[in-house]
User: Which sequence fits this backbone?
């Protein structure tokens, strides 16, 4: 798999295009019929092998070390090259929009359904028909029009100090607004899309007024200002700075790999009600994909057993394909009931969520 500057590719394409001459200026050395006859007379062993379609160009907000090994495995198995362009999701989506039909990107692969919804809403993705993906990826983890598909799953749930909190004290996201948690709660900044998506799904379920009341309660209970990462929340709980927080599951996995004895554990939120909030990393075919068939083949392959297991091994996420089991560390967190709401809600109500958090002074 190669990572190439798209500008260089564009220049190369321009030079190739400029080198072509009109048909009238080219004197053929042999006729088409003669060429056909020569080809027919060649032994089968001398016929040129069929070249795989591609390369597939992927714009991705995922860190390269998390996905490059998976794409390399795809190339080994199929012969289709994958060229990767990485960056932050916002700028990548803006770049795709600015490039229009001149883009080289065949796939947008990014974190959070809110980002995928935004790209689809801007007309940057196209619907595809794939019985393979429809069978592998549950309906609530993909776009209703099949413009994008979740490929790995993370839950955003409660973490707590095993030294200072009993699991029986915990129940739901809403209950974290209870005054008993005053000065004991840590949250990541509202500017991160993960929290926008969580609040968006709360709006869908509770309504805007009740959700605003909950978010104001969270803000009132903060032990310190919102933090820049989920890892910092877990570390702050372990250090005694706060007692509870809300994080994506794989961040705890990262901390447990570094320190298996870290005194922080997961609690599955809202098991008596809606189920825990889940989200996805996923991909869609761009509206102007130049290698659509090969791009569909890549996304279909990513939904199959081997890459689904690799997602769990490399990222400590849950496979989107329910037939595949996650790695042992992830399984060790135990079973949970996920919220069955379609994750596209995270994007559809994102603007409302952002305005609500602003009104609640959640920064």
Assistant:
């Amino acid at each position: 798999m190669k990572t190439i500057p798209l500008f260089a590719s564009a220049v190369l394409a321009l030079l190739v295009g400029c080198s072509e001459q009109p048909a009238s200026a080219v004197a053929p050395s042999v006729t088409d019929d003669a060429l056909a006859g020569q080809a027919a007379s060649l032994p089968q062993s001398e016929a040129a092998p069929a070249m795989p379609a591609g390369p597939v160009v992927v714009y991705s907000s995922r860190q390269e070390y998390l996905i490059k090994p998976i794409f390399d495995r795809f190339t080994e198995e199929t012969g289709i090259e994958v060229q990767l362009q990485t960056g932050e999701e916002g700028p990548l989506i803006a770049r795709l929009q600015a490039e229009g039909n001149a883009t080289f990107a065949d796939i947008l692969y990014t974190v959070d359904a809110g980002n995928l919804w935004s790209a689809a809403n801007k007309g940057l993705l196209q619907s595809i028909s794939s019985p393979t993906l429809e069978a592998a990826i549950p309906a609530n983890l993909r776009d209703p029009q099949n413009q994008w598909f979740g490929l790995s799953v993370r839950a955003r749930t409660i973490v707590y100090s095993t030294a200072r909190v009993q699991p029986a004290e915990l129940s739901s996201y809403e209950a974290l607004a209870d005054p008993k948690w005053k000065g004991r709660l840590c949250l990541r900044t509202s500017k991160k899309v993960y929290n926008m998506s969580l609040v968006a799904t709360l709006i869908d379920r509770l309504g805007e007024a009740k959700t605003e009341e909950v978010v104001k309660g969270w803000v009132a209970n903060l032990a310190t200002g919102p933090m820049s990462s989920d890892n910092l929340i877990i570390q702050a709980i372990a250090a005694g700075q706060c007692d509870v927080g809300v994080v994506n599951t794989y961040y705890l996995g990262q901390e447990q790999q570094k320190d298996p004895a870290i005194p922080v554990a997961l609690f599955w939120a809202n098991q008596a009600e809606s189920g825990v909030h889940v989200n996805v990393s996923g991909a869609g075919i761009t509206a102007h994909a130049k290698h659509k068939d090969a791009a569909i083949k890549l996304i279909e392959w990513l939904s199959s057993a081997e890459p689904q297991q690799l997602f769990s091994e490399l990222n400590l996420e849950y496979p989107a394909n329910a037939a595949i089991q996650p790695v042992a560390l992830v399984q060790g967190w135990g079973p949970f009931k996920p919220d069955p709401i379609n994750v596209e809600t995270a994007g559809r109500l994102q603007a409302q969520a952002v305005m609500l958090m602003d009104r609640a002074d959640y920064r």
In short: Residues 59 and 92 are 7 Å apart (CA to CA). The beta strands are 56-60, 82-86, 107-111, 149-161, 185-186, 244-248, 264-267, 277-285, 318-319. The domain at 56-153+279-324 is CATH 3.40.190.10 (D-Maltodextrin-Binding Protein; domain 2). The chain is about 40% helix and 15% strand.
